[in-house]
Write a structure and sequence with these properties.
Helices cover about 80% and strands about 0% of the residues. It has about 450 residues and is mainly alpha-helical. The chain is globular.
Length: about 450
């Protein structure tokens, strides 16, 4: 069996072999990460109430929005750094990394200062629809969590560096260790103190930050020493180069902000925080499919970039066709998970939280199509063909809010996710059409931008 696995891993060119190794190791690590994140859910619901857990999910998604405000630097850096490494230009790579850390650090500081001022005037009990009972605690929690995210915002560039260096498995290891530490801390808290939203927020928020800091120190002194950020290598002209590419990614991210990340808020407004908890349980359950998709797809972003630079169109077509075949298994998995969902929810979190079957069905459709769509999105992102995405994702993001409210008032949380699913399918049709025109070398005008 081991010999057969070794033969399978060694088949294909260097790009294929590296992708297979990344996928297999990432499957093991991300699988372990999924298990730890699933175990954390019932523990946190036991530590705090289902209402507070719903508040935490909504709050973390709001504060997580700041990840979209790196002005697309992470994705811009990924493409530029992959190209520099492919050409063996380590000096250029170090300048790109150093410049990106400086720019993102400045953005993070500005965002924190702005939030620190605005937080004094925000009524989080109204925003999250919790009632006045949690008002004082929410004010403190939001500030602490935002401070943590501000630092993590900078440190998570390490994931981009790992992916651009074709070390996706290393990025997966960092995620796993962060999730594991969070699980251990939550377990200890349950045994030692009374549950509180602040303690939960700090335990889950600090875990990935601490792990990212430790791995950054180790890697930039060993494997990535040639990339270690240094203020002497900051080049503002390179920053402008990355910015010119990143601006398109930034607009896409703004669209995605309204496309995906407002769903928790809309659900909280139209159905209450408890409905967010139900949605959060279902989302984490079907997020297993998203994680599998991410494991398979992530190594191919830098691989597509490299193949595009070297004009290896045959490899791109072959890889895209193979990935589409894998999606058949993803669709089957989604169907099986849907049929077993009611039983597995009870086994997982007990009877305290009820998840409507219709909500699970819509999420199964959403994650299945989004997996298929991601194949083409990654190719377009890797080759910097972003104009169509900029337009359709931004429009879809804007439409998602009123459509989500409209369907949410009629069908609750299920209606909110149905709105996102419909728009996701529409966007995917445009992206698939653009890929086909590009790969057949008959893309003109906006289809070639």
């Amino acid at each position: 069996m081991l010999d057969k696995i070794k033969v399978l891993l060694s088949k294909g060119d260097e790009r294929d072999v590296n992708a297979k190794k990344n996928i297999i190791v990432s499957f093991l690590l991300k699988g372990a990460s999924v298990l730890t994140s699933l175990v954390v859910v019932p523990l946190t619901i036991d530590f705090v109430s289902p209402l507070q857990y719903g508040v935490w999910l909504t709050l973390s998604s709001i504060i997580g929005w700041m990840n979209f405000f790196d002005i697309g630097f992470a994705n811009g850096l990924k493409n530029k750094l992959t190209a520099a490494i492919a050409h063996g230009d380590h000096a250029e790579a170090k300048i790109l990394v150093s410049t990106s850390y400086m720019f993102v650090a400045v953005i993070s500081l500005i965002l924190f200062v702005v939030f620190f001022i605005l937080n004094n005037f925000l009524h989080w009990d109204s925003i999250l629809n919790t009632g006045p009972g949690l008002a004082g605690e929410l004010q403190t929690v939001t500030l602490m969590v935002f401070a943590i995210f501000s630092i993590q915002f900078i440190l998570q560039l390490l994931h981009t560096i790992c992916i651009a260096s074709h070390d996706v498995r290393l990025s997966s290891l960092i995620y796993f260790v962060g999730n594991l530490l969070g699980l251990i801390i939550v377990f200890i808290l349950i045994k030692t103190i009374k549950g509180s939203l602040l303690a939960l927020s700090l335990s889950i928020g600090l875990s990935p930050l601490v792990i990212l800091l430790i791995f950054s120190i180790i890697l930039f002194n060993t494997k990535y020493k040639y990339l270690s950020p240094n203020i002497r290598y900051v080049d503002y002209s390179k920053g402008r180069e990355i910015m010119s590419l990143s601006s398109k990614f930034f607009i896409i991210q703004i669209g995605l902000l309204f496309f995906y990340n407002v769903d928790n808020i809309i659900i909280s407004q139209v159905a209450g925080p408890l409905a967010v908890t139900s949605y959060g349980i279902a989302y984490k359950y079907f997020n297993v499919i998203t994680m599998i998709s991410g494991i398979i797809m992530t190594p191919f972003w830098p691989a597509f970039t490299e193949a595009h630079i070297k004009k290896d169109t045959d490899w791109i077509v072959k890889t895209v066709n193979n990935l589409q075949k894998y999606c058949i298994y993803i669709f089957i998995l989604a169907l099986v998970m849907l049929l077993l969902s009611s039983y597995l929810y009870k086994l997982w979190v007990g009877k305290d939280v009820s998840v409507p079957f219709a909500l699970s069905a819509v999420l199964a459709i959403y994650v299945s199509f989004n997996t298929f769509r991601t194949i083409f999105v990654y190719y377009l992102n890797a080759t910097n063909k972003l104009y169509i995405q900029v337009v359709v994702v931004l429009i879809a993001g804007i439409i998602n809010i009123p459509l989500g409210y409209f369907l949410g008032h009629h069908f609750g949380a299920t209606g909110v996710i149905l709105a996102t699913t419909i728009l996701c399918i529409i966007c995917g049709c445009f992206e698939i059409f653009q890929y086909k025109r590009l790969i057949n070398d008959n893309a003109h005008g906006i289809w070639n931008k």
